[in-house]
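Backbone geometry:
***
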Amino acid sequence: MADSPLDNMLAQMDRAREYVDIPDNIYERLKSPERTQKVSLPVEHDDGHVEVYDGYRCQFDSSRGPYKGGIRYHPGVSMGEVEALAGWMTWKTALVDLPFGGAKGGIVCEPKELSDREIEQLTRRYTEGIRRMIGPEMDIPAPDINTDARTMAWIMDTYSVYQGYAVPNVVTGKPLEIGGTAGRVEATGRGVTIITEETFQYLDADLDGASIAIQGFGNVGSVAAQLLTERGANVVAVSDVTGGIYDPDGLDIGDVAAHVADGKTFSEYENAKRISNDDLLRLDVNALIPAAIEDVITTEVAEDLRADVVIEAANGPTTFDASSVLVERDIPVVPDILANAGGVIVSYLEWVQNTQQYSWDLQDVNDDLRDRMTMAFDEMVGVYDEKDIPDLRTAAYTIAMERVASAHEYRGLFP
């Protein structure tokens, strides 16, 4: 039985391999990360005591180009988790046809318990620990859970100090003032919205008036909720770590966003019914969008799930066994490696702008994002329909794995 995110990913690869011809010797290489580094990060706290944190960076595959992947700060970070996430990044960049491989990093910590100064110290120490692994032609980090543009600015600055000159393209997701790109902050949520539109069109359903539940109201979930509301959808439920809020007539997303902007949790929200995160996943809605963390849709949830379609905005929100249940129940799932690829697409556009020392306006960025997302969606459903593959996730994996395997085949094995 598949348990960890890494087990889930490897099991999904095995399932997809039935539909794609990859030589055994290359397939063996696809299953193993190229390198994973653990670093110890001593940080002096504001009260003077020193604590040592663990940090990781996994570089999964570079056959198609430099490694690309976010950095998260979370108590649940582990070596296995970053290896799974780096693998997903490999398939994600291949699926949307970016010239990148996959990587991921993280620090085991609870950011809510740290001051801004302590987080800065931790970030700079981590950057020093992995700086020999990263670089604009080698590995380009980006924000993830509990990291943001300011975090990327600290990483860029630390790396640049060691180089002796400014290196903006060592990270993406930076502030605009130091080489960031318009549209990067909203990119993942915008991509989720684009894929939701494409999915409804593919299923011959109407997004206008459709009921949608979103688990998670961070950067991705909040942007998706606002944009889907603008498209006429009815976002009936959202949640955070304290639980969810629900209104069958549709939430006032502007009011919800203002509540969160005031630093309040949903346990304090008065204008809707409170529900648990578990209840949210089981709501009778047209679309469920898990936009929080891994493994929230378990087999038990999958058996009770009542949404017409699942759009995976988080990385790995559905366990492998739960995916099988949803296939049996004929509930389509648009996989994470496509649905949340908007962030890495616009990160690529930022990296290209930095490399060219030229910037594009927001409309150009958003148009490029839509073109790449819709093209990848069309390729996925094309393979799904043509090869009679049982689910969209497996179709997406066959495309991604074939592209990475082909790169390995052309490059050969050295020595």
Notes: The CA atoms of residues 303 and 329 lie 8 Å apart.
